[in-house]
Amino acid sequence: MSERLLTNIGRLGVAIGFSGVVAKSCLYDGEQQHWQLFSCMQHHQQLHRHLRKRLQQADLAHSVTRPTRRKALRVAELDGGQRCIMFNRFGGVSQRPVGEGLHFFVPWLQVPYIYDIRTQPKVITTTTGTRDLQMVSLSLRLLYRPNESRLPVLHQTLGPDFAERVLPSIGNEVLKAVVARYDAESLLTQRDRVSQDIREHITQRAKNFDIELDDVAITHLSYGKEFSRAIEEKQVAQQESERIKFVVAMTEQEKKAAIVKAEGEAEAASLISKAIKEHGGGLIEVRRLDAAKEIAEALAKSKNVTYLPQGVNMLVSQP
């Protein structure tokens, strides 16, 4: 279609030029009319060469008299998840994105710009100060994609490198603004809340530039050396305090156990004394016999004992 159009334009220009030359070259000498065909042919050839030169300069692969088909059209192949914005040198940017598949375009006259509308990752790293003036380094991971319905506007305002133009700028701005509301310790204890605040603010800012954010998360958070050392010392002190508390509690328990044991022994001694007063030395004799029996059983089981007398006079001194 484009080849036929260019050919017809060339033929029309040649015809107009030829007619003008013929009309201008017509003479009447009073006796006969004659056409200066030679002059007409010269003008025709000059016009023909001029049109061919202009078409070659425009890099269009067509000739007025001999069109070349192999360079007339080119093909843009779009994979899944890709969209194409076509720029026309006469009509400007097309307001309807082109979907997946094969699409033909005329070189020089049309320029395709391919966009990936699938979700892509972007990491933003910055160093900023907290509310208590502690420096903290953060890494923010963004999953972004262009707004497909606003793709022509995005192309006109930002271009294909929209992510590099917008995301680092608004990312650093939002991180600095949100982190400044928290102190250094709160960034650790309230990390989920900090992430939520950052997500809400940066998502809203990105929408103003026709960029959709599917997910925002803090992937790295670190402090300066001095603050890290202070946190480490604080943790060591807390662990030492907990250890001391444990030792004190253990000592207290041991003290209570000793008191209970002493009270038990005193009560036992009191009961034994009371029993001796009431029943005489019979209780002591019974305890002695029980002890002798236990000793004898232990010696009988020992491999080093080869002889054990039957009498118990050796073990218990009796009159």
Please, could you describe this protein's structure?
The chain is an alpha+beta fold and 319 residues long. Among the domains are: 2-69, no CATH class; 73-116; 120-223, Band 7 domain (Tetrahydropterin Synthase, Chain A). 52% of the residues lie in helices and 21% in strands. The protein has helices at residues 2-24, 37-57, 151-157, 162-179, 184-189, 191-207, 225-279, 282-301, and strands spanning 26-28, 33-35, 74-78, 82-88, 92-93, 101-105, 110-116, 120-129, 135-146, 211-223. The protein has a three-stranded antiparallel beta sheet with strand order 5-4-7, with helices on one face. A three-stranded antiparallel beta sheet has the order 8-9-10. Helix 1 (2-24) packs antiparallel against helix 2 and helix 4 packs across helix 6. The longest helix is centred in the C-terminal third of the chain and has 55 residues, at 225-279. It is rod-shaped, with a radius of gyration of 51 Å.
Key traits:
319 residues, alpha+beta, Tetrahydropterin Synthase, Chain A, three-stranded antiparallel beta sheet, rod-shaped
What value does the Rg take, in angstroms? Answer: 51 Å
Q: How do the SSEs run, as a string of H and E?
A: HEEHEEEEEEEHHHHEHH
Average residue pLDDT: 76
Residue runs with pLDDT of under 50 for 5 or more positions: 12-41, 59-70, 315-319
What percentage of amino acids are in beta strands? Answer: 15-25%
Structural class: alpha+beta
Shape: rod-shaped
Largest sheet: 3 strands, antiparallel
The CATH architecture of the domain at 120-223 can be named as: 2-Layer Sandwich
The H-level CATH homologous superfamily of the domain at 120-223, spelled out, is Band 7 domain
Pfam families: Band_7
Family: Belongs to the prohibitin family.
GO cellular component, one term: mitochondrial inner membrane
Organism: Eimeria acervulina (Coccidian parasite)
